[in-house]
Amino acid sequence: KNIFNIQFTIFINQSIEVLLISHKYEVFENDTLPITMSFINYLSDIEQSVKVELFGLYIENIVENVDIAANTISSKTFYVQVNNTIHTNSIIININVSRAGESIYFSEKEISVIQPIEIKNISFPSSVYQGQRAFLIIKIINYREVPLNFTLYINNIPFPTNLDQIGYGENEIIVDFTPSINPFDFETKEYVISIKDDSGKVLIIETFQTEIRLSSFRISLLIIFVKLKTNNELKSNKINKIDFLFKFIIIALFF
């Protein structure tokens, strides 16, 4: 009588598996990050359920049950809400999938936190003449796909601009203002430029200095005035003309 002793190994696989996890690798503060997960149920006649947990710092944790029909692939998208204030350049989202209290999948996803806008260039004059208009030009990129409401401030004073909103993509913000009309103002002025969103959050802040110069027209008037005043040989009937010119020059200097 022949007796056979055969040994072999049987691998027991999970009857349910996480096939795919897809998501963006960049997120804004106060944004929503979609994470899509695909599951496969290998059992041909039994529906199965898993518990999905997404948790970590700077996000609202999610715990949900997902049912997967027999012998099917099922996908579900989870919308992770990101906090509006994050103190790091990236966040970690932990993903745990369990069945009957036993973990069948765990991973950590590192997501970069980026600013919603980027400043490409800021143009501001280093010097202007008294009474001359100055133009602040800001080239800015909005990475959000929705327009951004904003207010521009110069030294904490709101100023109108050519744009009501910062649209998706590249924008050019232009501010037209006159730094000084004071004829005795020859100082170097400092301007703090800031842009805030609807919530009052500062999106950008920059500081510039501008030298206020006396215009050539006003310099000419001052020279004329000095020459007339220092001419001691003027006849008395011309004094009234000098006073008239003096008043004219003063008015021109101020306006």
- What name goes with the CATH superfamily of the largest domain? Immunoglobulins
Domains (count): 3
Largest sheet: 6 strands, mixed
Low confidence ranges: none
Structural class estimated from helices and strands: mainly beta
Measured as a percent range, the helix fraction is: 10-25%
CATH fold assignment of the largest domain: Immunoglobulin-like
Give Rg in angstroms.
Answer: 36 Å
Q: Whole-Å distance between the termini?
A: 124 Å
Shape: rod-shaped
Could you tell me the number of beta strands?
A: 17
Q: What's the level 1 CATH class of the largest domain? A: Mainly Beta
Count of alpha and pi helical runs: 2
Question: Can you name the CATH architecture of the largest domain?
Answer: Sandwich
Mean pLDDT: 84
Order of helices and strands: EEEEEEEEEEEEEEEEEHH
Our estimate of the beta-strand percent is over 45%
Describe this structure in words.
A hairpin with a 4-residue loop joins β16 and β17 (202-213). The protein has 3 domains: 16-113, Immunoglobulins (Immunoglobulin-like, Sandwich), CATH 2.60.40.10; 117-213, Immunoglobulin-like; 216-254, no CATH class. The model has no long low-confidence stretch (mean pLDDT 84). The strands form 4 sheets. Strands 10, 12, 13, 14, 16 and 17 form a 6-stranded mixed β-sheet that branches. A 5-stranded mixed β-sheet has the order 2-8-7-4-5, with no helix packed on it. The chain is 12% helix and 50% strand. The protein is rod-shaped, with a radius of gyration of 36 Å. The protein has 2 helices and 17 strands. The chain has 255 residues and is mostly beta strands. α1 (216-230) runs antiparallel to α2. The termini are far apart.
